[in-house]
Design goal:
alpha+beta, 4-stranded mixed beta sheet, 2 domains
């Protein structure tokens, strides 16, 4: 995969400016993330979410740099609970754009359900299940969503979800 449309934004502000200028016209881009720059992966992802974009493939550029591919998010694409929470926070901070809001999924925490198979497995160990019930709701949604995402991608995985 060739890394064309390479963006070298050294700061979060530079990346946001590029997105503001190009998020409607570009099909994708590669952002250089470097140990030597102040633009972190998390900053890049959060700004992308503000404009309705999402990260995907990562490619090593050299010893210190990584290219991270970003592209517009499809309207009905799967959202992780972690990214939903990021968007809630970004919206409260006033950073979400109208383009970013257009691609949002159902954002209520009630829209998240836990696979009955996972609950049944947890209930088999009373101590584990009690601990699970004591965890904060956001933590549970993020961790269970990770497990359910793996199960969705790899349906052949049965009881190996505990290793996620």
């Amino acid at each position: 995969m060739e890394m064309d449309c390479l963006v070298t934004a050294r700061t979060r502000q530079e990346w946001r400016k590029w997105l503001s200028d190009n998020h409607r016209s570009e099909a994708y881009c590669w952002v250089t993330l470097s140990k030597n720059h102040s633009l972190t992966y998390l900053d890049a992802v959060e700004e992308a979410l503000c404009f309705g974009w999402i990260d995907s493939t990562k490619k090593r550029v050299n010893e210190t740099d990584v290219g991270q591919r970003f592209s517009p998010r499809k309207r009905n694409s799967h959202w992780t609970e972690l990214n939903k929470e990021r968007v809630r926070r970004l919206d409260k901070l006033g950073l979400m754009t109208e383009e970013g809001k257009k691609v949002l999924p159902e954002m209520t925490s009630e829209s998240f359900t836990i696979d009955e198979e996972i609950i049944a497995e947890l209930e088999q160990d009373e101590v584990l299940y009690q601990h699970f019930q004591s965890l904060p709701d956001l933590y549970v949604r993020i961790k269970i969503d990770n497990i359910q995402s793996v199960k969705r991608i790899m349906p052949c995985i049965k009881n190996d979800w505990r290793n996620s």
